[in-house]
């Protein structure tokens, strides 16, 4: 009886953000971070704007960590989900035919660039990478993996094992034998001072040495992000993946392109991040934007590779009727409105504007990224020493100015921006003005 009374009391209460924060801290683990000194609850959204519980509106430049790819409250997506809901079938499991799943798999296979492709749907990028690693290790009969420093591939056991960022490595245990390659870091590190061509040559030499000294030769795969998301939008020179794959092909080692954050035209110049390198991966993982907030992810790869799993396997919720209804609507909208071209056009406004306005400040080490996947790295003036405190000041100043952004990087000193791909030119200029003001005012405080 007391439990019912408590429930009714909570239902009838008007909760403030402070109440919600206290409740959050009372029942959720402390290792789940909340943004901002005063965390906010988002209660509504439209287009590229969201509103918090206090009625404050924000221009969203982070999109639920690059997930709300086409924005908020998009009629075409809402209506597609409502049509599926109206059938009464929210879930059936993949033990039955799912029309929405088959249709989306056909589309994903077609746009993947991988010949004779097969698609397996999951719920998240972590699961997609786990599935890709499962496939690759079965295909090659090896648990040896090549991964890249500063990478992030997920929070589960194997995905965490190939994550090269200590802040996100919650366990020292690992079911895989991993050898690490240098990233495309251009601010610090052994390859940072090299030109693009020299960096590619040095990275290839590094790969050959790692294969010769840290492996038994029968490596399963290399997994890499075209642009490292959590790593602060660091990316290697174009062409590196092709140079790596030439070496991998000598031994039949598979290449997995983790496109969880770079896929679907976000980089502007290409539909997939791997295409900047002139190479086709054996497996490609995707997630985030394709569901536009609905849980949807997966792996697509060559049939002979993806069919190598020797036992029954499926994902209970992966590719369910609701999420794939959303995914079909998202992909159709993306292609019909050529959002890749918009990402290139509007992203250039932001990148060029940032480089012009703040790129010369001695606290800014680099403005980097492609399309609508941009980062600003902050350092202590006159050095390359990371300055996470500066990043926090800019981050909070952006929020105060009405702009939501993200944080990241190996040292927590990178401001990350991944707005919806529907961002308009006027909104880009509005956000740019807030960013420039936040960076300049924060630099003066320092």
UniProtKB/TrEMBL annotation:
InterPro entries: Aminotrans_3, PyrdxlP-dep_Trfase, PyrdxlP-dep_Trfase_major, PyrdxlP-dep_Trfase_small. GO terms for molecular function: alanine-glyoxylate transaminase activity; pyridoxal phosphate binding. Homotetramer. Its cofactor is pyridoxal 5'-phosphate. Pfam families: Aminotran_3 (PF00202). Belongs to the class-III pyridoxal-phosphate-dependent aminotransferase family. It comes from Micromonospora kangleipakensis. CDD domains: OAT_like (cd00610). This is alanine--glyoxylate transaminase.
């Amino acid at each position: 009886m007391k439990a019912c009374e408590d429930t009714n009391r909570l239902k009838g209460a008007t909760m403030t953000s402070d109440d919600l924060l206290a409740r959050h801290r009372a029942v959720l683990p402390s290792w789940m971070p909340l943004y901002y000194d005063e965390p906010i609850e988002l209660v509504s959204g439209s287009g590229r704007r969201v509103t918090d519980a206090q009625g404050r509106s924000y221009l969203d430049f982070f999109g639920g960590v690059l997930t709300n790819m086409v924005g908020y409250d998009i009629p075409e997506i809402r209506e597609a989900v409502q049509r599926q809901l109206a059938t009464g079938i929210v879930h059936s499991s993949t033990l039955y035919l799912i029309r929405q799943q088959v249709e989306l798999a056909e589309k994903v296979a077609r746009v993947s660039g991988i010949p004779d492709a097969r698609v397996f749907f999951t719920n998240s990028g972590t699961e997609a990478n786990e599935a890709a690693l499962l496939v690759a290790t079965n295909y090659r009969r090896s648990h040896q993996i090549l991964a890249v420093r500063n990478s992030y591939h997920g929070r589960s056991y194997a995905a965490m094992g190939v994550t090269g960022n200590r802040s996100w490595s919650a366990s020292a245990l690992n079911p895989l034998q991993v050898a690490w390659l240098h990233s495309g870091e251009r601010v610090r590190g052994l390859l940072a001072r090299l030109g693009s061509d020299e960096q590619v040559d040095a990275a290839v030499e590094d790969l050959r040495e790692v294969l010769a000294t840290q492996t038994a030769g029968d490596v399963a795969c290399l997994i890499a992000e075209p642009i490292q998301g959590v790593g602060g939008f660091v990316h290697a020179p174009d062409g590196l993946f092709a140079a790596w794959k030439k070496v991998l092909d000598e031994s039949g080692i598979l290449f997995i392109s983790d496109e969880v954050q770079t896929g679907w035209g976000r980089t502007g110049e290409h539909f997939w991040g791997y295409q900047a390198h002139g190479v086709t991966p054996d497996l490609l993982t995707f997630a985030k934007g394709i569901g536009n907030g609905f849980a949807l992810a997966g792996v697509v790869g060559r049939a002979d590779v993806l069919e190598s799993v020797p036992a029954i396997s499926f994902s209970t919720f992966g590719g369910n009727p609701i999420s794939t209804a959303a995914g079909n609507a998202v992909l159709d909208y993306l292609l019909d409105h050529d959002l890749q071209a918009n990402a290139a056009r509007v992203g250039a406004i932001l990148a060029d504007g940032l480089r012009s306005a703040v790129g010369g400040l001695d606290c800014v080490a680099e403005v980097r990224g492609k399309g609508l996947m941009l980062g600003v790295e902050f350092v202590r003036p006159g050095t390359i020493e990371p300055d996470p405190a500066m990043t926090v000041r800019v981050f909070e100043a952006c929020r105060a100015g009405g702009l939501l952004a993200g944080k990241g990087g190996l040292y927590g000193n990178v401001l990350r921006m991944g707005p919806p791909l529907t961002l308009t030119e006027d909104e880009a200029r509005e956000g740019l003005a807030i960013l420039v003001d936040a960076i300049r005012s924060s630099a003066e405080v320092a």
